[in-house]
Amino acid sequence: MKTSSFIEESEQYLLHTYNRYPIVIEKGEGVYLYDSSGKKYLDFASGIGVYAFGYHYKDYDDFLKGQIDKIMHTSNLFYHEHTRDAAKAFIDASGMDRVFFTNSGAEAIEGALKAAKKYAYTKKGKNSYEIVAMEHSFHGRTLGALSVTGNSKYREPFEPLIPGVKFAELNNIESVKNVISERTCAVILEPVQGEGGVYPADVNFLKELKKVCGEKEILLIFDEIQCGMGRTGDLFAFQGYGIMPDILVSAKALGGGVPVGAFAMTAGVAEHSLAAGDHGSTYGGNPFVCAAVKKVFDIFEKDNIVEHVREISSYLEKKLDELVAVYDCITVRRGTGCIQALEFTRDVAPIIIEAQKKGLIIISAGPKVLRFLPPLVITKEHVDEMLFVLKQILNK
Ligand SMILES: *Cc1c(COP(=O)(O)O)cnc(C)c1O
Q1: Same domain? 235 vs 296
Q2: Is the overall model pTM greater than 0.90, yes or no?
Q3: Residue ID of nearest Cα to ligand 1 atom 15
Q4: Which of 32, 33, 53, 340 has the CA that lies 20 to 30 A from 132?
């Protein structure tokens, strides 16, 4: 079937919530994607930060195939070895004390918000329901996650959303203090804003924020759905900052390709928060996805992925900085580790389309921001290959 008629047919059945690119993906191999005509693409998006190890990591594939032959789903009425192992791996790696597995990032945000609300309800009473979130943040598309997403265009059609959400400015502690009240139960933020344009939080801002939250018994929630799982050159971004949240949210690369998210909390929060009957999920943390989570943590350790990210990202940063110096249309580089961005003076959409024609997948984070979110296992050769294509486009 011709690509154009295939796309036409797909659009006939799918709800049009995405403007998809006119590419039909057939398979992935390593850090490359192949479309249905056999064309090869270097993948600098990794399924939006999901495929940390590239496509077809043998050990991971074999383990999941084996699990399919045993059992994929049990419901949370029972225990399973992989669910225990995945939880232990998450707790050991994060320093949190209790974890709940979900089926997506947005759902993990929902759980984190519920956990914070329940904690405040238990400790301070039912009027402590306000949440402070950041402008330009992104936390997902479900109603709770949308309520704390700092983009009014996404929120407006669905209002009224959950009440008591106030927005502050990232890296401006006064703006946070201005909206905190007696009723505030939590502050939620991404240590590195992803969708909003790749803006890392300043370490001093986070230090101050931690202090303010601590003084007022307000829970600090870090959304590490995009910036966690090795991407910043630490297993979790907060570890690089040396600032521990009370609630940590993960997803995307957590499952290496299967739909899974997680929210975790300290023992102090868990003790006064969600209890039996307060939260649940039919699929959440089933043996199949937990086999994936367990393998993902294994591979991080076995293959020294975090060290590799530190090495390769210093090369990537250097090369991107060279582009900023050479091309007038690029104003600045932002980012840390393997979550990087270049800000342009003009729309980047044509660059993305041109890159696809030349066999490079790259995405945006806002109209003028090109985002680099490669598999964490890329090498210098892959960076050079990406730059070769990008320079060709920019030179035109
Ligand atoms: C992708 C993302 C989400 C939402 O995750 P989904 O799995 O798409 O629901 C939430 N927060 C951040 C920071 C994200 O990047």
Answers
A1: yes
A2: yes
A3: 226
A4: 340
